[in-house]
Amino acid sequence: MKIALVHDYLNEFGGAERVLLTLSEIYPQAPIYTAFYKKGSPAWERFKDKKIKVSWAQFVPFFSKYLHSPLRFLAHFIWGSFDFSKFDVVIGSAGWYITKGLTKGKKTIEICYCHTPPRWLYGYKTSIEFQRYWPVRVYGVIIGHFMRMYDFNAAQKVDYFIANSKNVADRIWKFYRRKSKVIYPPVELPNSPEVQKGNYYLVISRIVGGKGLDLAVKAAIKLGLRLKIAGRPAGYYTEYRVLQKLAKKNVEFLGYVTDAELAKLYKGAKAFLALATDEDFGITPVEAQLSGTPVIAFRGGGYIESVVDGKTGNFFDEPTVESLVGAIKKFEKTRINPEDCIAQAKKFSKSRFKKEIVDFVNKHA
Asked: What residues does CATH 3.40.50.2000 cover in the chain?
């Protein structure tokens, strides 16, 4: 089969990009079509040896750095500029940029691996959180109305949906009235030497809005806990400097770390904090469990599909510092078996993902 892969754009390297990287391992001859890339970015470094096809937006000055967000209504023209009629199967990795409803031949099968319907279109928290500014809210209401219609119509052109979690499958049905197959993302960490357990709590996240980072910092300060936060700032998150000023010596911002360093951090952590209130799925809590490290998570979103309360971690119920502090205190009195964490994480393995994707594609195409 002639297969093409399609992805929003290549900039940060997060969970969606890990899925794309694994898809490119399954289908190494498949070209990757994307709106644009940022040369030198974390995603570019992972994909620079792949066959990348960019749209015209790549060559518009300042588009990749500044204009892709305010000019997001151009998504229709970006994806419409590609012709996939020569391919048998097109697999879209879709989240933010309405990467679906592509131009294809009558016999071309379009499969959409949906990380989530675009959060900015349907009232979910986003990393940038420009909604706080009234001109942007007015602009968003006007543009959002037409973009939701476009997004819905594009979704009806997809032949088959795959959701990255039951949580996202519910959203696909709610907003598109389309059924989907749940195939959880692949989770894998590089082998690392044994690491002695430390006395710190860990957060792995891009420094952006909607991730609950303020809760982690304030809870650590209140309890006097050691907290390490790994991840670089992204977007226009205005709280980062506030958190840096607020943080005491017990809170450490590590910035970008390599996968090898991540594996060591996971293994050495006392517990991992998963704090977003409506996470689509969330790969990092599974990575933590794969390292034998329990998870303290907000009871919501994809976390309830990966964390087993009382066995591989515990939940807190309100997005408040007090609720998180209560969960940490409860955790301090609970004994979690690292082997239970590892066994739970293996349900989300990379080999399992590859098999399920290949079976799905072979069945429907």
From this structure: 200-347
Packing angle between helix 134-156 and helix 166-176, nearest 10 degrees?
A: 90
Q: Residues of 212-236 as b/e, b for ≥16 C-beta within 10 angstroms?
A: bbbbbbbbbbebebbbbbbbbebbe
Which tens digit of pLDDT belongs to each residue from 313-358? 999 999 999 999 999 999 999 999 999 999 999 999 999 999 999 9
What's the distance, CA 70 to chain centroid? 21
Two tokens, residue 29 = 């001859």
Separation CA 322–CA 144 (nearest Å): 35
Nearest alpha-carbon partner for 264 in 228, 316, 240, 237: 228
* Distance (Å, whole) CA 48 – CA 52: 8
Quote the pLDDT of residue 240: 73
Tell me which H or E stretch contains 272. strand 271-274
Q: Tell me, what's the pLDDT at 246?
A: 79
DSSP character at residue 194: -
Task: Write out pLDDT tens, residues 126-146.
Answer: 766 556 667 777 888 889 999
Burial class (CB in 10 A: 0-12, 13-18, 19+), 83: exposed
Q: Is 195 exposed, middle or buried (0-12, 13-18, 19+ CB in 10 A)?
A: middle
Question: What CATH class is the domain 200-347?
Answer: alpha beta
Dihedral sign from CA coordinates of 226, 312, 167, 319: negative
- pLDDT 10s digits, 183-213: 999 999 988 778 889 999 999 988 776 688 8
Q: Which of 18-27, 226-235, 249-258 has the highest mean pLDDT?
A: 18-27
The neighbour count for residue 298, using CB atoms within 10 Å, is 26
Gap between the Cα atoms of 252 and 236, Å rounded: 21
| DSSP string covering 16-40 | HHHHHHHHHHHSTT--EEES-B-TT
- The helix (run of H) or strand (run of E) holding residue 339 is helix 338-345
Of 96, 54, 107, nearest to 79 (Cα)? 54
Determine the CATH number of domain 3-186+349-364: 3.40.50
- Strand order through the sheet with 89-94: 52-54, 32-34, 3-7, 89-94, 109-114, 160-163, 180-182
